[in-house]
User: Which sequence fits this backbone?
């Protein structure tokens, strides 16, 4: 009986450690600050797999949330809305975090082929926000957004 109790306690402690001590989704978020002082919490999409999945299959995105796609080099990265269930605002940012293109109120793709949305200028980042957020926050071309990416091997801010 004592062994079963010890095993149960150890299992409980191990589960708690896995739940509360491991790195996971909570460690891949950063704050992005807008010129008006408001901020959103953005999930980072830094790997090819994360960028490929993006906000697919999400049922909602709050006004103070978003996803920041991070690319190693500036380029004319195009996006589509396949399997994306919510309309979005897409903001392309250059290496200095300045907005170089905005696609507002981009609708979900309802049937193939899905259209692509591309910037007029190359970017290093794309910030996706819920549709209408760019207007709510008063964002416009060449506004500079403030954020700090985590260093390799470190955890982003929550």
Assistant:
């Amino acid at each position: 009986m004592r062994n079963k109790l010890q095993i149960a306690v150890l299992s409980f402690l191990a589960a708690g450690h896995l739940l509360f001590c491991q790195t996971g989704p909570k460690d891949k978020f950063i704050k992005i600050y807008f010129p008006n002082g408001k901020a959103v919490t953005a999930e980072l999409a830094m790997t090819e797999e994360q960028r490929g999945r993006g906000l697919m299959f999400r049922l909602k995105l709050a006004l103070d949330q978003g996803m920041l796609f991070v690319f190693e080099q500036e380029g004319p990265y195009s996006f589509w809305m396949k399997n994306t269930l919510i309309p979005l605002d897409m903001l392309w940012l250059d290496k200095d975090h300045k907005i170089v293109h905005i696609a507002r109120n981009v609708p979900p793709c309802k049937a193939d082929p899905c259209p692509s949305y591309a910037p007029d200028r190359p970017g290093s980042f794309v910030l996706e926000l819920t549709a209408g957020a760019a207007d709510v926050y008063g964002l416009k071309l060449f506004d500079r957004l403030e954020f700090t990416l985590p260093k390799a091997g470190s955890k982003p801010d929550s």
DSSP finds three helices and eight strands in the chain. The first helix runs from residue 2 to 21. Residues 2-26 have pLDDT under 50 and may be disordered.
